[in-house]
Design brief:
By secondary structure, the chain is α/β, with parallel strands linked by helices. About 50% of the residues lie in helices and about 15% in strands. The chain is built from 45 helices and 28 strands. The chain has an eight-stranded mixed beta sheet, sandwiched between helices. The chain is globular.
Length: about 1150
């Protein structure tokens, strides 16, 4: 019989261990309730036998309440095992993970699992009090109750080994049941142990399931228990294992919850974005970088910021400093900064201090046309950064619109490449690099290569092992050679063959490179595989309707003028051969005509480009400007012609005065406008006065140190080739004649059609359900003219250009952003803007968009539409309108259509420079909805299947995940065998081996997609015994794997390779050769194709001996040849094994 007593651990008889055992074993006790500030397995081990006996009895239960002991918490939080660890969850997890594997600890785990899953053991966490505030739990209370007996112990001992046995503690045992069970009544405030415990229990959070699943079942002790559990997996479970190997990171819910916790409260927790983050993190760890290619409107900036947050929040012992550089085009830097500020708003763990920004550079407004806002297209890239690239040891570099780094010859690329190299030298490890680009696969192979090189630093032995064994230099050289041959129209390749071979290049790039490093989500993917998540959050993507063409009709004279103009300002190569009547834009090409190379050198350097390259780029930009203005409005085009005429006249006048200025940093045309200066200064200003003004500006630039190379300078006629003057005059003649023709044209049928369609079509209430309209144009005067017309029709236009975007940002959000959390306003119902709003802004309270100027490429169109077709839109449909020119007569209609098609081809040429196109193609007519939604990503169905399996079978999923051996499972005794093979220091490869009836096998490397499809089976599929030849098939798979990674040099082989191939063909075609020998010759040919010199030498030696003994051809027996070839192949394989370690089978089946 126990009595009230103090328990202080001063002896065995007065230890908490002893008293707990006695209380638990007391007859009649059927409920145990323990509140503790901390808990550990070694403490529970001390009373394990007693607890086991107790829980085995019918009607018993154990309630464990774990709180936050302030002293334990303080001591542990000083030295956490990792950043962001939470108490007590992560500390208990770490304690269990670090335990030595002992039988008694395994028994505790088994007890917790057995009775936790049955409900006999319940575990809760106490963190918050009745008012919802955070609260420590310093109290320790042990209650043992039954019908006839009750015991209560309160004091200082936690349910830990030290608390029960080791520490000097002080606890009090109460044996009076009336005190233990007392409850407050009227006239009495008595509160017993049980009452106190139940109050805390009600305020606590259930932790039983999470504790068992996330902590116990992921501990090394549990894994060790599982090893001893007999199990036999099915073919379907083997297929699940394959999915885990490839997609396990994506379905890891614990990682997903951590990533979700980074999101600000006002940003939706979208499962598809979290999955993309997990996938990119996994790719980044394996390859040193990743490509994120989500379609427009899925939130690449949010995903990118989450990856940055994860990188900064979870330090790894990898040598990378926690500093981030974000590189963006100028137009979208503000969107990134805004997103990062939102992430930092309500947290102490701010990421802004660890992030630097820099923009890609622009060449400036060389057209001197104040009415034009250049879109952020690649033709205006300067090839340099917009600021100074700091030499910091960044650990992570994020590049938005990474296709701007497709050219390794630019100064910008080389500066970044040198910085990455320097970081590698300084820290011993290269920074991670994240490439964000909506259309990476549309680039030329070399463009893709240059981006990948930013993180794949070892080009001859990269982590992309499926690409020429990791030699991506050779891989891209081969692919690009084939590509260049196919796009060269001089090669007489049938169209169908060309298309097939181009498709083959795309497949090779996808299978060997992009499948490993690219993460891409389309709207189709999101709507199909994340439907439940989207619906649960009340989110939908509107359906796109369009493009709807608004026709404007030209009369015959205007149609002819439109057609002639395109021939003059942007002729095709064919038209250039037919006539000389086309513009060369010589006003912008003066530097091409320097006579002294020293003057040329002043204007080179950006991206190592010659003066010819620079001047042609400037001329091309002017050409693009004119075509865009023609498309925008005839009034705008006429004004641009007038400006170009004046600028060309200025150059001619400078020539005639023998005073020629070439000044990239001075607006020479503005300085030479003596009429405007006369009006401004209220006195007569001459040409010579203007010359003195320019000289003064050059002097000032020089004094300020901004003219170091002397690029801003004054020249004379003798400094240029004489023919430049005649070329200028010819351009002036063409410009003047064209302007005179347009000056006589009073019509603008496109503008008239806009006014006619505004109310009945663009504001048709059956389509425009939002009552708001978005209009895009690239010319400011067109935007202003449209605004006047809209206002005249009674609507409320908001005009946004680069000048006022920042100051009007709040007005835009209040009137057009469906995600705006403040009060929505309707001060404006039409927003008319330039490309300045094509990125980084939400306009999705509107559901009708008009491209007043036809979009130049699909990406630009996607970006525009992406402003209104976004998550959070309330309207079911988005209507897209484009203008389409037509004419009155049939002949004129054809004329206009041909000119317009040519204009569209011009778009494609300068907007998507890697496209294969013909003059008949038009980007106006493609299926816009399909282009915007995107085709389903081929891998997402497998991710979805894995998620579903994990949800339906969580325990079996864990067993499959934790089992690394025994994954060679047969479904048949013959057929096709599939293997995943891996060496310790190399990549996994998928290999198929088809077994024929004559027992000859044919091995080949296959893609991940092919393997997934081949191994997909029904859940009911049964396993069978491995076939008798399984050992040989496995050996063949490993041999094929090793042969694939043989490093060779094709270029050194030369003609000898061709000779060796001829000998192989001769041997192969001999009637007496065996099937085994034929298969061996096939493998040998692959190595000869790759340029293996050792194999080539042996084949040539065999060929020479055969030639010498022609009358007795088989003096060298076929068996001898086989032995020689086997031996030489074996040498190469041995060399591979020494480098990458011995290859082994990860998983295999036959079916």
């Amino acid at each position: 019989m126990m009595h009230n007593n103090l328990i202080d651990n001063s002896s065995d008889t007065l230890s908490m261990e002893t008293y707990l055992k006695r209380c638990i074993l007391t007859e009649g006790i059927d409920k145990i309730q323990i509140a503790t500030g901390y808990w550990d397995i070694p403490g529970m081990t001390l009373v394990l036998n007693e607890l086991t006996s107790f829980l085995e009895r019918e009607g018993t239960s154990f309630e464990l309440l774990i709180g936050k002991d302030p002293y334990v918490y303080t001591s542990m939080i000083k030295n956490p095992k990792y950043k962001d660890a939470t108490y007590p969850y992560d500390f208990i997890r770490t304690d269990i993970h670090d335990l030595e594997i002992k039988e008694e600890y395994e028994d505790v785990i088994k007890l917790l699992l057995k009775y936790g899953e049955s409900g006999k053991i319940q575990i809760r966490i106490y963190i918050k009090n009745s008012k919802g505030g955070d609260e420590f739990l310093h109290s320790k209370c042990y209650i043992f109750s039954g019908a006839s007996h009750s015991f209560g112990i309160i004091g200082s001992s936690n349910l830990t080994k030290k608390g029960l046995l080791g520490n000097a503690e002080l606890n009090y045992l109460e044996t009076d049941p009336t005190r233990i069970t007392a409850r407050p009544t009227r006239g009495s405030n008595a509160k017993g142990h049980i009452c106190w415990f139940e109050e805390k229990w009600e305020l606590s959070e259930d932790w039983t399931q999470e504790f068992l699943e996330q902590i116990i079942k992921k501990s090394p002790i549990y894994i060790d228990i599982q090893k001893d559990t007999p199990k036999e997996f099915t073919p379907y479970e083997q297929y699940i294992k394959l999915l885990q190997i490839k997609f396990g990171d994506i379905v890891d819910k614990t990682l997903g919850q951590q990533i979700e916790s980074y999101l600000p409260a006002n940003i939706h927790k979208l499962e598809y974005q979290v999955d993309a983050v997990k996938r990119c993190l996994s790719i980044m760890r394996e390859h040193g970088g990743f490509m994120l290619a989500d379609v427009v409107g899925l939130g690449k900036t949010i995903i990118g910021t989450l990856i940055i947050k994860r990188f900064l929040s979870v330090p790894e012992e990898d040598g990378r400093e926690r500093k981030v550089l974000i590189i963006t085009p100028p137009a979208i830097q503000s969107s990134w900064k805004k997103t990062i500020a939102a992430f930092d708003k309500d947290t102490d763990e701010k990421i802004t201090p660890f992030i630097d920004f820099i923009t890609t550079g622009r060449i400036g407004n060389i057209t001197d046309d104040e009415d034009w806002e250049e879109a952020d297209d690649d033709n205006n890239d300067s090839g340099d950064f917009g600021g100074t690239l700091q030499e910091k040891n960044y650990g992570f570099i994020v590049i938005d619109e990474s296709h701007k780094f497709r050219n390794s010859a630019t100064l910008m690329y080389q500066s970044l490449d040198q910085l990455i190299q320097k970081i590698g030298f300084d820290t011993g490890v290269y920074p991670y690099v994240g490439l964000l680009s909506a259309t990476p696969q549309n680039n030329q192979p070399n463009d893709l290569k240059n981006q990948i090189y930013l993180f794949e630093r070892n080009h001859n032995d990269s982590t992309l092992k499926k690409a020429e064994s990791g030699n991506i230099e050779r891989f891209f050289a081969d692919v690009n050679r084939e590509y260049e041959q196919l796009i060269d129209r001089k090669n007489d390749i049938p169209a169908q063959e060309r298309d097939q071979r181009l498709d083959a290049i795309s497949k090779r790039l996808r299978d060997c490179v992009l499948s490993d490093i690219l993460e891409r989500r389309t709207r189709t993917d999101v709507e199909k595989y994340y439907k439940e998540d989207m619906e649960a959050q009340g989110l939908v993507f509107p359906k796109i309707v369009g493009p709807n063409n608004l026709e404007y009709i030209m009369d015959d004279e205007l149609a002819q003028l439109f057609s002639d103009t395109m021939k003059i300002i942007a002729p095709t190569d064919e038209e250039k051969l037919q006539t000389d009547e086309w513009l060369r834009y010589f006003r912008y090409r003066a530097i091409e005509y320097f006579t002294d190379p020293a003057n040329e050198r002043k204007h080179t350097g950006r991206g190592n480009r010659s003066v010819s390259d620079v001047s042609k780029q400037l001329a091309t930009i002017m050409q693009i400007l004119l075509v865009k203005r023609l498309e925008s409005s005839f009034t705008a085009f006429t004004q641009s012609l007038l400006n170009l005429r004046r600028y060309t006249e200025n150059m001619i006048k400078m020539w005639e005065n023998d005073t020629i200025f070439v000044c990239p940093d001075i607006d020479v045309n503005k300085e030479l406008d003596y009429e405007a200066k006369t009006e401004k200064r209220n006195k007569q200003v001459s040409f010579h006065d203007c010359v003195e003004d320019i000289r003064a500006k050059i002097k000032k630039l020089t004094e300020q140190g901004r003219n170091e190379k002397g690029q801003n300078a004054e020249y004379q006629r003798k400094d240029f080739k004489e023919k430049y003057f005649s070329e200028l005059k010819e351009d002036l003649r063409l410009i003047t004649n064209l302007y005179d023709r347009w000056a006589k044209n009073p019509q603008d049928p496109k503008f008239d059609a806009f006014k006619e369609n505004l109310k009945p079509e663009l504001f048709n209430p059956q389509k425009n359900t939002s009552g708001k309209l978005v209009i895009f144009s690239e010319a400011i005067d067109t935007v202003q003219a449209l605004a006047r017309a809209v206002k005249a029709k009674g609507y409320k236009p908001l005009v946004i250009t680069a000048v006022n975007r920042d100051e009007r940002e709040k007005i835009i959000e209040e009137n057009f952003d469906a995600n705006y959390e403040g009060e929505w306003k309707d001060d404006y119902n039409v927003i008319i803007t330039t490309e300045v709003l094509a990125e980084g802004v939400n306009l999705h309270r509107a559901n009708v968009i008009l491209n007043y100027d036809t979009p130049w490429n699909s990406t630009r169109l996607m970006q525009r539409i992406g402003r209104v077709n976004r998550i959070g839109s309330k309207e079911p449909f988005v209507f897209v309108y484009n203008f389409m020119p037509s004419a009155e007569g049939d002949a004129q209609i054809q004329l206009v259509r041909k000119a317009h098609t040519k204009l569209q081809s011009f778009h494609v040429l300068f907007g998507e420079d890697s496209k294969i196109f013909s003059e008949e193609e038009s980007v106006v007519h493609y299926d816009i909805a399909k282009a915007f939604d995107g085709e389903e990503s081929p891998l997402l169905k497998y991710v979805d299947e894995l998620k579903q399996y994990k949800e339906d079978h969580p325990e079996r999923y864990l067993q499959i995940d934790q089992t690394t051996q025994g994954w060679e499972i047969a479904q048949a005794t013959n057929g096709t065998a599939y293997f995943i093979v891996k060496a310790p220091r190399s990549a996994k490869l998928a290999i198929s081996i088809h077994t024929a009836e004559d027992s000859q096998s044919k091995a080949q490397i296959i893609s991940l997609l092919e393997l997934l499809e081949a191994m997909r089976v029904e859940e009911s599929a049964q396993r069978t015994a491995l076939p008798d030849n399984w050992q040989q098939l496995s050996a063949d798979a490993i041999k094929t794997y090793n042969q694939y990674f043989v490093h060779i040099n094709k270029s050194r082989a030369g003609d000898k390779r061709t000779q060796a191939l001829q000998i192989i063909v001769k041997l192969y075609n001999n009637d007496t050769i065996s099937e085994k020998s034929k298969e061996l010759l096939k493998n040998t040919r692959k190595l000869v194709d790759k340029g293996s010199l050792d194999i080539i030498k042996k084949i040539l030696a065999i060929g020479q001996e055969l030639e010498e003994k022609k009358p007795r051809l088989f003096n060298i027996e076929q068996q001898d040849i086989d032995e020689i070839l086997e031996r030489e192949i074996g040498k190469l394989v041995a060399n591979v094994e020494s480098k990458q370690g011995e290859a082994s089978i990860v998983l295999a089946t036959i079916k």
